[in-house]
Amino acid sequence: MSFGSLPDDILIELFTYLSFHSIIALRQTCRRCCIISKTKAIWLHFFRCVTSDPTGRGDTFHDTPSSRSSEDLENSITRMVRFETNWNNAHVQQIRYFMPPDGYVDTLVPGEHWQAWAMDLACIDPTAAHLQFDLALELTTHNPFSSEAATTRKITIWRVKVDENDELVAELTCSFDVFRTSAFGSPISLQGESLLRASRGPSGIPVYIVHRWKGLGDKTVSHSLLLTQARYVPEKGVRLLPDGRIISIFLDRLELHGPPDVPWEEGTSIGRNMVRAPPQWVFKYKTPINNLQFSVSRPMYYPKSNSVVFSIHNAESLFAFRIITDNESSPEVTTTLFRHLEDREYIGLDTSHAVRNKPGREEAVLMSFSQSPQLSELLSFAGIINKTSDAGLQSHIVVTEALLRVPHASSGGSWRVDEQSGPVLCSLGQRPVRPKCAVLYF
């Protein structure tokens, strides 16, 4: 029996044993193979293979895979394969340069000379055809470090989209005034239609305020307050979970707090006798010698499994956290020994990828690591050979490394990885020269 005489169902079954590049190559051989290679059953099979982990990429879909078209499934797999292939080969498809804002910003909110103090963003749907996210900005009309910094500030929430011309367009969706200065570092966290802000109260104790609104353009904003028992504001910022709980990230520990439940009005003073809530859960780790070598990944929410996943790296160990939302069970933590970072070596971290570099060097090391078999399945399907590195990770974890050359000296600790949508942000150049920034597309 010849290949051409095989029934369609047999050919479809054979296609499920091929690699991505083999399918694309076979598609070019004849019209029948081209038609069969686009069968939904084939791409649904591969999609489930590389996303079957409940904390995997497929969980970010807002519907079930079987409800998607064959073209959508193939495009999703293609994006995953392209990112992993280019990442592991240190091949950047495009680099866009820009200068970060400096000084006052007049165009965001008319009528005043505003200066940005804090920001956070939340992706709407990482599987959408065009990038779309919400952006929160805290603006002040004064130098944030001056004695006048505690005056009125403005919170603005923007819906940012990429249009058909590949241009970013922003629409102001919510705006309100606040009267407390956010702490330094990563003091705000955007989650849906809620914004968490961390500031300092009496004697410097952390004050958490959550602002909530309903829908685009809503001018009615409610506020709730939480005082913690910590002695100072977390150095590495705060994160707001979908169920309203709060993660506080310190250099030596992570704390999980319940949702703020005290109604609050902006401009009200905070009394020293107000109740300070203890954390629901605490996880301790070693404080790094160099605080700049501490890295936190962007939390990823997976609605199907009701879980939030993120990682922390303290210069010698990698801690992977998984928190079940709407559940009082303790978070799951996986601790992995990691090769010690060298002096003046920094890392930018995401859940399965990282960038390691030293300031002043025109190169960086791209890393892939995961305890999930789904990443190994994806790398195999993409035809990527696992190159075990000297990172010191346990043998059952997939580890690959690639050396990336960048056209300018990179600043240490200023890489931001977004493995869901693909771009990687880095800061180039060194002070006192104003650093130049770039977005790398893989």
Overall morphology: globular
Residue runs with pLDDT of under 50 for 5 or more positions: 54-58, 389-396
* Tally of helical runs: 6
State the total count of DSSP E strands: 26
Estimated structural class:
alpha+beta
Mean pLDDT across all amino acids: 77
Q: What's the arrangement of strands in the largest beta sheet?
A: 6-7-8-9-13
How much helix is in the residues? 10-25%
Roughly what fraction of the amino acids lie in strands?
25-35%
Q: Rg from C-alpha positions?
A: 24 Å
Q: How does this structure look, described?
A:
The protein is α+β, with helices and mostly antiparallel strands. It contains six helices and 26 strands. 14% of the residues lie in helices and 34% in strands. The strands form six sheets. Strands 6-7-8-9-13 form a five-stranded antiparallel β-sheet, with no helix packed on it.
Describe the protein's topology.
Layout: H1 8-15, H2 20-27, H3 31-37, H4 40-51, H5 70-88, E1 94-98, E2 115-123, E3 132-140, E4 153-162, E5 168-178, E6 188-191, E7 194-200, E8 206-212, E9 222-227, E10 238-240, E11 246-249, E12 253-257, E13 262-263, E14 281-284, E15 295-296, E16 300-302, E17 307-313, E18 317-324, E19 332-337, E20 346-349, E21 353-357, E22 363-370, H6 373-381, E23 398-405, E24 416-417, E25 424-428, E26 436-441
Antiparallel strand pairs: 1-26, 2-3, 3-4, 4-5, 6-7, 7-8, 8-9, 9-13, 10-11, 11-12, 12-14, 15-17, 16-17, 17-18, 18-19, 20-21, 21-22, 22-23, 24-25, 25-26
